[in-house]
Fold this sequence. Notes:
Layout: E1 12-17, H1 23-39, E2 44-49, H2 53-60, E3 64-67, H3 78-86, H4 95-102, H5 104-113, E4 121-124, H6 130-136, E5 141-145, E6 155-157, H7 160-170, E7 177-181, E8 187-193, E9 196-197, E10 201-204, H8 212-216, E11 222-224, H9 231-247, E12 253-260, E13 266-272, H10 282-289, H11 294-303
Parallel strand pairs: 1-2, 1-3
Antiparallel strand pairs: 4-7, 5-6, 5-7, 8-9, 8-10, 8-12, 10-11, 12-13
Helix pairs in contact: 1-11, 6-7
Amino acid sequence: xxxxxxxxxxxxxxxxxxxxxxxxxxxxxxEAVLAGLLDAGVDxxxxxxxxxxxxxxxxxxxxxxxxxxxxxxxxxxxMQSLLEALGIPYTGSGVAASALxxxxxxxxxxxRGADLPTAAFxxxxxxxxxxxxxxxxGGKVMVKPANEGSSLGMAIATTPEGLQAAYVDAxxxxxxxxxxxxxxxxxxxxxxxxxxxxxxVEIASSHEFYDYEAKYLxxxxxxxxxxxxxxxLIKEMQRVSMExxxxxxxxGWARIDLMMDEHDELMLLxxxxxxxMTSHSLVPMSAKVAGLSFxxxxxxxxxxxMEVRR
Length: 310
């Protein structure tokens, strides 16, 4: 990072931990980001955010925040709103975009309204006609809590009884639950930093879907970057990902997840506005292929906190 004046950032707080179910992953992300910033010469400190977040942030005397708080409370606009009230610039999307991107149901409504590709879906509730819904969505579905991350609360259903059971479990994670047409194809993710889409990563898991264990615990999950597909498909993934990112009003950085359907057509899954930065994480993998070291990448992300937020 020779030649760059890191003092321009002031004192940077790496906000991690939090109180969501993704707390432990967030702490790992925070440690990695802190090490990267310190290695680059940035004056940085880790803040393990708890119930006393306001006092923690005020007493830390930070000038800006690098957000790696995963899940509710960190990615849903609440922390962004607090930082804006305190007058502290931060990485990632603003209040409205964060809240929208965290909600898979409303995200998909936005994408569908903008004619962006996303799998057919239905909102579930206690009065759902389980058999009718399974049939309408093709006989096999993925059930998801709308405002949860790291694949927590997700399950596959192929029968009316299985759909109802999956809904009951998912509803313990969030009051909004969706069922989505099962996507059997290849899975990809496209990191975005600033206004650039980075090389796609292909995810190949031995699990039936890319669940929590496959994401964070398994050594059998394979990642290929850049994805071994035609250059035209790479460009299409990057184009669709940027459109998906922009339509939600995101900025700073994010990671957009996609899968192929049974016809090998790309389908958008979700946007992560504070992606993981652990040893298994995909944004650093993609950035490395693009020629950025971990330290260079976190500084580039930090630089986006100095831009005027839309």
